[in-house]
Amino acid sequence: HQSDTRTIYVANRFPQNGLYTPQKFIDNRIISSKYTVWNFVPKNLFEQFRRVANFYFLIIFLVQLMIDTPTSPITSGLPLFFVITVTAIKQGYEDWLRHSSDNEVNGAPVYVVRSGGLVKTRSKNIRVGDIVRIAKDEIFPADLVLLSSDRLDGSCHVTTASLDGETNLKTHLAVPETALLQTVANLDTLVAVIECQQPEADLYRFMGRMIITQQMEEIVRPLGPESLLLRGARLKNTKEIFGVAIYTGMETKMALNYKSKSQKRSAVEKSMNTFLIIYLVILISEAVISTILKYTWQTEEKWDEPWYNQKTEHQRNSSKILRFISDFLAFLVLYNFIIPISLYVTVEMQKFLGSFFIGWDLDLYHEESDQKAQVNTSDLNEELGQVEYMFTDKTGTLTENEMQFRECSINGMKYQEINGRLVPEGPTPDSSEGNLSYLSSLSHLNNLSHLTTSSSFRSSPENETELIKEHDLFFKAVSLCHTVQISNVQTDCIGDGPWQSNLAPSQLEYYASSPDEKALVEAAARIGIVFIGNSEETMEVKTLGKLERYKLLHILEFDSDRRRMSVIVQAPSGEKLLFAKGAESSILPKCIGGEIEKTRIHVDEFALKGLRTLCIAYRKFTSKEYEEVDKRIFEARTALQQREEKLADVFQFIEKDLILLGATAVEDRLQDKVRETIEALRMAGIKVWVLTGDKHETAVSVSLSCGHFHRTMNILELINQKSDSECAEQLRQLARRITEDHVIQHGLVVDGTSLSLALREHEKLFMEVCRNCSAVLCCRMAPLQKAKVIRLIKISPEKPITLAVGDGANDVSMIQEAHVGIGIMGKEGRQAARNSDYAIARFKFLSKLIATLVQYFFYKNVCFITPQFLYQFYCLFSQQTLYDGVYLTLYNICFTSLPILIYSLLEQHVDPHVLQNKPTLYRIKTFLYWTILGFSHAFIFFFGSYLLIGKDTSLLGNGQMFGNWTFGTLVFTVMVITVTVKMALETHFWTWINHLVTWGSIIFYFVFSLFYGGILWPFLGSQNMYFVFIQLLSSGSAWFAIILMVVTCLFLDIVKKVFDRHLYPTSTEKAQLTETNAGIKCLDSMCCFPEGEAACTSVGRMLERVIGRCSPTHISRSWSASDPFYTNDRSILTLSTMDSSTC
């Protein structure tokens, strides 16, 4: 894109004179995947070898291939290959899912006008300049400029819910010259060129012009956002439209609002890399020590070349330095298993399988919509347990996005709608029977309407007439001042007969550009003033069964600066009226009559209840005033320069001297349990931010009603800031107020414009204020602003973990920016759910936490390799291995991998219904503890075996001694048993799967060893292990040694646990103990015991409580013998119900 503008020839009719060089545009493909078939292998390998451990194992593998090392290359090559393959398969599968959803979008059928006919093609084949036909309820496949619709005025209605979260209908207009071309044949005659700006991400900005050639002359028409139909929006309420594609594929505004998919890496993975580096240091120091000691020994002649091991000529002549290096590398290879490569595989598997658990979790299942949680990126499961900041969208995420009319205030009196009738609230002034009967007659006129005409009211006393007029006027204003459309299909069936008016509201289907408007028009219809529809210039209203036609003269559209909209109509009586409605802050200051103060009080009362409020006012024009108004509007609308500013001035001029009629209050229903969820998250120490595109007042009222803001909170505001200096000053004041006010909690409200100022210059100050507020609300936010805020928090000094929740495509960029993005499958389309890491059906499902254990891996590998190091002291540093090669390879893959995997999937430290505070599993202190534990266990294995068996000669019946391999195997056996039982001690929550893998691993080791050592394997070079294991187990003292060492290792551990639990319990353990003591005593999660129990059970229970093996899940409930009773909340694992008596 060299130039700032692009020139598009409609229907790709290029000029014939040949001076034209066509611009190149991209095709209409959307790509959300990371890999292609060609780059998958190199790109994926590159990503995997970015991980320290993988890269390190690759190096070791290469070293083993190059020099003569004590172990064969297979020992490190096989695990590496296994790890890389498993990860690649998982990532490939996840990417394949993205590809298939892309293909679905790109392959959608569309109709394009080519050479005078409609051609059916695929969405990806649309080119810039193509004329596309879209039918009702279809989604636009590219950004189009509207050419014509099935209406004569060339208008159409669009909902952009999936783009910016607004469910309302927006009206788009075609240029008058093209609006006439309603058939394919006519469009084929169109010769036009569109010049417009290059693609940009702002959804609401578009500038361009269309040059139409008719009868040899050129007509230039301006194009604005109202002629642009965005990709992802949906055509409503219009049979079909034709539009010309101007931005396609990844250049559409929707695609530009996506952030690019970068590889999200979780904090656990980052902390694992730190731990790995610590271990690399340990490893290298061990190798260096061994090499130095080897050469120190060899300075003595008798050790350098003993009589039984003469050197060859070649060895004597080789250089010292080379020998030193190769010795060092050999030791490195010997000890390399201290780095746990299978840690990554297990973590990968844990995430992958954990993601299925999230999908299966019944607590995350939403019945009405039959939706379970989806996991799109399983790399981040463990992040869910450590979130510190949560950002959520409001409309559709916290609320259901359904509006209902609740109350209104007319002429200073409050009314509530109850069963379709307006009922005054509280004591009313001059509440004669008259006004009540009027109101009831208004809603139940259907049965009287043929008797009553408006004149029959006029005979009643003055005040009642006034009242009636006012009510009449109020609801007429409501049913005229709007942009509601009526679905074309049903209007035919409505007659003008008065008896029809009770059917009308239910048969008419309204479509509105905002849900509020729709709710208001429907409410007016229920009360008896029914909006029937608008043709070219008239709006028809049926008042109490009598049809009235109002001529629509002008609509002064809503905009976010004025925050109000108005219509100018000519009543049947011929007088010209302006009806205005808008936020109270924009209507009340313009009013000169009506009950302003009372209404203001009522509006505040409504807002406190969390209702969305609008004020309604009107103004009568004299014919002279109207002429002036008409002239001014016409001038402003046709201005080519600064049209927007001129219109704004005219609107200001017209909307003044209003007379206030009253106010309405509409409720946007909150999703269920939102309040509880936000409370729970706040209790867990998570800071909740609400980011929304909504109006300031609305957003604040929803925040209050959903518990995001409390009534007791001190609410600070940073809104409508115009300049940098003003913004900085305001921020400093807020910071001062926070330090001075002794309120416990502060809430902050920011709007989009002030926010962009604050972020541009005063980030530090702004962050300082935000960090001290427990709740922050940002309103009027653009999609990319949402992402910027999150980015800001992410890179702040504390580097907190962030989570974003949203349901519209306007939330996509923030979902991709946060560490963890959660999409809600809501009314606003599925865009967010597709781009998120997790997708759930409702907001309340956020409060489950997961956490994994990385330390255990390091522990078991320290146990594994330290005996190897110690053994070198006894074999003259000759690099003799202690374990057989097969054991080296399989230790991490088979013998010890499953228990930890299952533990990390199923473990629940406390009942999931007790929200845990943030897990602090990844702290350095615990890491040190595990490392030291590993070393001490390793010393016990090695020296225990050495002391018990090393000097003892008569172990075997025939008087033979134990050999080197038997000794190594003994150490290995003790190690496998200890490490597995240690895992069992850590487990708090037992299921049959835990039992299966824990005891199964030990049994598998024994069976495998008997099988491996019992046969001569022809393809193995050395049969070192032949019969070793069987011989070992045939010796009684070996069995004794095994049992003694396992008990010694774990005894210390159990003692430490008991003391810690009783003297310094952690918050988790306190929760476990309080739960255990409450009501039901339970021993194992499989069974509960009734009160009357044998003496031994109470002893058993005490032991249980000490070790902490008590399932908390049933504590909070009390069972009766008849209750069917699930073994735990994850009823997927154990689907059978158990009767408590069988326990």
From TrEMBL:
Main localisation, per the record? Answer: other
The root-end lineage is: Eukaryota, Metazoa, Chordata, Craniata, Vertebrata
Drop me one GO molecular function for this one.
ATP hydrolysis activity
Task: Look up the record and report any one GO term of the cellular component aspect.
Answer: Golgi apparatus
Q: State whether keyword ATP-binding applies.
A: yes
Report which superkingdom the organism of origin falls in. Answer: Eukaryota
Supply the name of the protein: Phospholipid-transporting ATPase
Its needed co-factors are: Mg(2+)
**Catalytic residues identified in the record:** 393
Please provide the record's keywords in A-Z order.
ATP-binding, Endoplasmic reticulum, Endosome, Golgi apparatus, Lipid transport, Magnesium, Membrane, Metal-binding, Nucleotide-binding, Translocase, Transmembrane, Transmembrane helix, Transport
Q: Where are the transmembrane segments?
A: 52-67, 274-297, 328-347, 886-906, 927-949, 961-985, 997-1020, 1026-1052
